[in-house]
Design a protein that fits this description.
Elements lengths: L3 H31 L5 H28 L21 H24 L6 H24 L10 H4 L8 H19 L20 H20 L8 H28 L4 H16 L7 H24 L8 H19 L2 H4 L5 H33 L6 H6 L1 H6 L4 H15 L13 H29 L3 E5 L6 E4 L1 H7 L15 E2 L6 H15 L3 E6 L5 E13 L2 E10 L1 H23 L4 E4 L5 E4 L1 H7 L3 H4 L28 E9 L5 E13 L2 E10 L2
Antiparallel strand pairs: 1-2, 1-6, 3-4, 4-5, 5-6, 7-8, 7-11, 9-10, 10-11
Amino acid sequence: MDNPSVAINTMWLLFSACLVFLMQAGFLCLEAGLTRRKNNINVAIKNLTDFAVTTVFFWLVGYGIMFGLSGNQIIGTSEFGIDLTSAPPETIAFFFFQVMFCGTAVTILAGAIAERVKFGSYLFLAFVGATIIYPVFGHWVWNGINIGEMRGWLGQIGFVDFAGSTVVHSVGGWISLAVLLVVGARAGRFPKGKPPQKIHGSDVPLATLGVLILWFGWFGFNAGSTLGINDQVPRVIVNTVVASSFGLVGSLLIGWIIRKRAEIDLVLNGVLAGAVAITANCHAVSTVSAALIGIGGAVVMLAIDALLIRLRIDDAVSAIPVHLGAGIWGTLAVGIFGDPLLLGTGLSRGDQIIAQLVGIIVCFLWTFGVAFIIAYTINRIFPLRVSAEEEHIGLNISEHGASNELLELFTVMDEQSKTGDLSLRVPVEPFTEVGQIASRYNSVMNALEEAIQRTEAIVRTAMDGIVTFTKDALTILTINPAAEKIFGYSPNQLSGSAVYQLVAPPDGQTPDGYLKSILPDLIQSDKYHELYGRRADGSTFPLEVIITEVHVGDSSFITGTFRDITERKVAQEKIIQSEARFRDLFEKSPDPVFVEDEYGNILDVNEAACLLHGMTKDELIGINVIELVPPEKRANIEIDFFDVSDNKSYVLESLSYTKDGRAIPVEIRASQILYGDRPATLLHVRDIT
């Protein structure tokens, strides 16, 4: 390069292109930090791969379409697969710079549609962006800028986009919106009938580093668009940093007022929105205008972000509010704030605004239209989105077979929730935070498994039948051996059956209807209730049952404890019959019979006792035997209380007094009995007059 000026300009362009290339690292950090850990490898691979794919196809096709000879002002017709071996250094530098711009436009899509699109689908969309959408629109605006002559039709009508608010950022934003409308939101982002759920990023500090790298690279992005060292460069760099800073401050203050707290996305997206907004006009506005443009970019970004949530459009990294929203505003700001002399279009301010609006509308029609048609058509044939299961486990595994200790932890936990296998353990990676979590989790699972095994041992060996079943369908979930024996079924025969087949309903009622009618009362009472069960052979028998509802998270199930009380019922019947016989003998005995407690209080008497004393049963029951002696004679009478413990019995002679005080010689036989559920003394009295 004999011309020093050309040499310096070439070096400046190469240096600026390297700064723009650094923005790829910024996008990678930003998008990986704002997405979940199970997808961060996928995000990183996409950001790396799309640049290589973009470079290949932009060199083969895109550069020729965008900067080839334009006889029709629509599309380039030369420079396809350009051989740069013998090209002038300034041409090589210009190609290198434009490759960086194309890569930036394409990689915007990676963040917006993150965490749900197949890797192959994304590469196809990157191919479409690099070979068709971006180069064609770029031709309309920038064809001829390398030779100082606007040959594209938008450039010729006076549309100005100095460094790509529309050509790069809006194009990337429109493509993102079109694809998002086709593939839809991430699972769980907008649950039906519920407010939107925010999906938090895995590494916000990494995302913040990404924004700083992008901000640094933006100086080359905007200042390099001068295509050489000139008096525009200082103004462009200063306007870039001022607009970005005011975008950050404006977004932070406005968002702080609205949300009542300073959230990190306000800072990250604010600085980027300000940078995008100044990109179209950084060469032609004052410092004050740059500040206003940065604030305007922040306002538009916040408004578009709220609108997307309202429309339930899931942009994973807010690429559309930042690149599309702020890009449109920055392009329009060329006509509002741009110095006509510096713009050099010869248009009045009003005409310049109209020219900018035309470019914005054309970008929408071309970019969104083509991207939506292609994405929609391909999606009908080959779905762009991963399956629900693949999205759930994460694209790191489903798309790349890559894993990490956190994913291994989640995988084991997920498998345990599906299979109930508590013997599974998480691999422990020592000296990492996740490894420590895995170790603690394994310890918890050891204790839980031991507790469950003890519980299962108790259930297996319990004498009572224990059955768990669902509340709504009454389907048996588990049944212990005792229950199988009680109801006469072989092992595992009842699992999955209806629990009401174990119940014998009253006449005229169905088993399911009967059980459903009494189940609420059984659950609430928390006491044993008696009903009849039905064995496998159809026979019925008396049961005692207690029902408990167990809540586990949002679900619940029923536990029933069943006890066969056939033998107890037989014993009770014998007791009743025995008591009936005793009562019959008691009442029909010709001799007086008394039942008294340990203190001598009369509990019961027969008719003969009433005749002996000339008193009714009501008069005798409840009084103490000493009251059968007239008060004036009690001092001379010794009353014996019988010790009949250990089944002792006594026979003695004594006097018994009638109601009118007449003494009757009697023989008393005393013995111990069980009266109801209490010990008592039976006195068999015989008149021995």
